[in-house]
Amino acid sequence: MKxxxxxxxxxxxxxxxxxxxxxxxxxxxxxxxxxxxxxGTQPVAGCIGCRVCHSGAPCVFDDSVNALAARLDEFxxxxxxxxxxxxxxxxxxxxxxxxxxxxxxxxxxxxxGAAVVSxxxxxxxASYDRLNKYFGISSMPIVTSxxxxxxxxxxxxxxxRDEEGMQTMRTLGENMAWLLKCIEAGKAAGVPAPHRExxxxxxxxx
Length: 206
Fold this sequence. Notes:
By secondary structure, the protein is an alpha/beta fold. It has helices at 15-29, 64-69, 91-104, 124-136, 156-160, 163-188, and strands at 2-7, 33-38, 77-85, 88-89, 113-119, 150-152.
């Protein structure tokens, strides 16, 4: 089993990374492989709604979004981490995730997902809610912890001193490992995946 940990911060080894690494260490104790994907510092184009990806083609913006989308079959679960900017996840991270989930959500369906946010003081719960929306619309079981998955601090050193936050990350890792093992055991026992009806698309005027 392998879990992707998405670091949506331009700071490769900052506060978000520190939180994700604590989750990863717990998963690794359970024999689960992890990989941290860092978003980098280059601008990320947002989705323009052209729907080219719905024809089976890659996103028209050929960048790291397409590179990661092509690898999603390697992973059994995903943890999405982002820093808080103005009471929301960083724009770079949501631009990336909008395109990734819009173009490749079929590869994530049924896989557990979890959100992690880091902030100095406020905006964590709003950012956490925003990130969880990606999993909810993609038929992904959402993994929780003993509290909302957040850490506080202005530096990695301060995050490490957030004892409750770091414990929350370890509990998240434990819960993710448990769920992955349950899914694996269910498959071995012949438990089928949930039946999925053909999607229905409606709006409020028809």
